[in-house]
Specification:
Helix content of chain A: 25-40%
Strand order of the largest sheet of chain A: 1-2-3
Order of helices and strands of chain A: HEEEHHHH
Largest sheet of chain B: 7 strands, mixed
Number of strands of chain A: 3
Number of helices of chain B: 14
Mean pLDDT of chain B: 96
Low-confidence stretches of chain A: none
Strand content of chain B: 15-25%
Radius of gyration of chain A: 14 Å
Oligomer: heterodimer
Mean pLDDT of chain A: 90
Structural class of chain A: alpha+beta
Largest interface: A-B, 20 and 20 residues
Helix content of chain B: 40-55%
Radius of gyration of chain B: 22 Å
Strand order of the largest sheet of chain B: 4-10-9-8-7-5-6
Shape of chain A: globular
Structural class of chain B: alpha/beta
Shape of chain B: globular
Chain lengths: 138, 408
């Protein structure tokens, strides 16, 4: 089986991007895998249907931390298109809708590793936390 | 003396490979592996004797009934019960404790009563009491855990002054590995009029248990942690108390006479065998007990103790590794939990599995409040059984160094 602890995963775990406080956030939320002891807090600056800034804090395993770091990197990348939005009809109308449509496949692609069923909840934790904020506030 | 090489050959699963490496199974506190003697007993039951018990008078029904009764006798004797009818078959420790909560607890616990348990309980010996207390307006108190991972006995004695109706304590912690002094605790509990329940899920499989000597009132354990199949376990209840308990589940097999107006119930233990029981499970558990008895529980305990002594010496040498629970071997069973600086338990477990074929548990091991108290969301746990040896510990230790290197 391929090593899931690729250099870039370890790097994102040890040096997570967009980690820390977001002083002018408009919304925040929290997600946890209680059985693992993984916890992530998301801070979002929302302007209508657009996320203008985002950060995260929390404690977790290498996979959940790297997943959060990579997810936030993608969200801040204007060229990023989730799998579900790569259709002939083109992008979704709003960034929020696009993120809400994301799922396991997007996270697995982003990580570039083979995620086992028992670890899937680790890599989807940050996405679920973010979607939870968007669902409640948009 | 325990001959591990010979014992390993009895366990078919131990000869398989995991991720291209020989399996090193160190997750025995979660569930144990099964010797071929147990597997064959179950196969033999279904191949030769399967029938419903206590019902048909045909030959198979008779054989199955005898095997079931024999299994009860074998398991009861194993834990020192003088009467096999004091032993109820249940699915597992969790069901055993829920049975006590739903029968004795519903009748005995009332508004303002106190149930005393500990901070190191498995959720299965904590949640039922929280729920019962909420239903009845009672209070659950928790005996604290000292820094060395042992129970705070002074706190226990102080909380006994609150006159609890029940003391519910884990015999061996599945997280800290600490062996609690349940006999001494039972004596003190009885002095204030409390009954004593012991969660023996981690002790019955690993040491000689004698319910008479422990002096407890309820003792719960699981078959699958002692080489038996999943789905069968035991609840031993002191005879005088058992006689007063109402049924737990209602239906066939537990009735004396049923009319349209009402029902009378049979005597114990059948009163607690509503519906078709897990006969094959009981037969398998009895085979496991025979296997353990042949080894001798003193020898099993001694083997695990010397293995733990070896493991603790190796683990304490590892920089950045923190152990939980006592390191005093006289107070510790074959369970050791640890954390590594800067590395989450899941990552430790995953690398040990993928690169070394080592199976360990990671998470909070159903002891969440204590993990929170320690400020550790998750730990890695290795737990031994009689088929583990020093070579297994060596693979674990080699794996831990490799994990640290990967994250270094």
């Amino acid at each position: 089986m391929d090593d899931i602890y690729q250099v870039n995963i370890i790097d994102h775990y040890k040096n997570p991007r967009h980690f820390g406080d977001l002083p002018d956030f408009t919304h925040k939320g929290r997600g946890a895998n209680a059985s693992c002891g993984d916890m992530v807090e998301m801070y979002v600056k929302l302007a209508g249907d657009t996320i203008t800034d985002i950060s995260f804090k929390g404690i977790g395993c290498a996979l959940s931390t790297a997943a959060a770091s990579m997810l936030l990197e993608k969200i801040k990348d204007p060229d990023f298109v989730p799998i579900t939005s790569r259709t002939s009809t083109g992008r979704q109308k709003s960034m929020v809708k696009e993120i809400m449509a994301m799922g396991e496949k997007d996270m697995v692609e982003m990580m570039g590793i083979d995620v086992s069923p028992t670890r899937m909840k680790c890599v989807t934790l940050p996405l679920r936390a973010l979607q939870d904020i968007l669902k409640k506030n948009t | 003396m325990i001959d591990v090489t010979k014992i390993k050959q009895d366990f078919p699963i131990l000869s398989r490979q995991v991720n291209g490496k020989p399996l090193t199974y160190l997750d025995n506190a979660a569930t144990s592996q099964k010797p071929k003697q147990v597997i064959e007993a179950i196969v033999n039951y279904y191949s030769q004797h399967n029938a419903n018990v206590h019902r048909g008078i045909h030959t198979l029904g008779d054989e199955a009934t005898r095997l079931y009764q024999q299994a009860r006798q074998t398991v009861a004797t194993f834990i020192g019960a003088t009467d096999p009818n004091e032993l109820l078959f249940v699915r597992n420790t969790t069901e055993a404790i829920n049975l006590v909560m739903q029968t004795w607890g519903q009748a005995a616990i009332g508004k303002g009563d106190v149930i005393l348990t500990t901070q190191m309980e498995h959720h299965s010996d904590m949640v039922p009491w929280q729920v019962l207390a909420k239903q009845k307006g009672a209070t659950v108190l928790y005996v604290g855990v000292k820094e060395d991972g042992t129970l705070a006995m002074a706190d226990y004695e102080a909380k006994l002054l609150q006159k609890p109706k029940l003391v519910a304590v884990v015999h061996v912690s599945n997280f800290l590995g600490v062996i609690n002094p349940v006999a001494e605790m039972a004596e003190k509990a009885h002095k204030v009029g409390a009954l004593m329940l012991v969660d023996a899920a981690q002790s019955v499989p690993h040491q000689k248990i004698d319910v008479q000597k422990l002096g407890v009132d309820f003792l719960a354990f699981s078959g699958h942690k002692m080489m038996g199949p999943m789905g069968i376990g035991g609840l031993w209840v002191k005879k005088e108390i058992l006689a007063t308990l109402p049924p737990f589940l209602y239906g066939g097999g537990m009735i004396d006479e049923v009319t349209f107006e009402g029902t009378t119930y049979t005597d114990v233990p059948d009163r607690f065998d509503a519906g078709t029981p897990n006969v094959a499970g009981a037969v398998g558990l009895a085979a496991a007990v025979d296997y353990l008895s042949a080894l001798g529980m003193e020898a099993v305990a001694q083997h695990e103790k010397s293995l733990m002594t070896y493991a603790l010496a190796k683990l304490t040498e590892i920089k950045g590794l923190h152990l939980f629970g006592p390191i005093d071997i006289t107070q510790k069973s074959g369970v050791v939990a640890f954390s590594l600086d800067g590395i989450h338990a899941h990552d430790v477990a995953q690398i040990l599995d993928r690169e070394f074929g080592v199976a360990v548990r990671s998470g909070h091991h159903c002891v969440m409040p204590l993990h929170v108290a320690y400020g550790e969301p998750a730990t890695t746990r290795a737990s031994f059984y009689v088929y583990n040896d020093q070579a297994d510990v060596d693979v674990l230790v080699e794996g831990i160094y490799a994990v640290q290197k990967k994250f270094g």
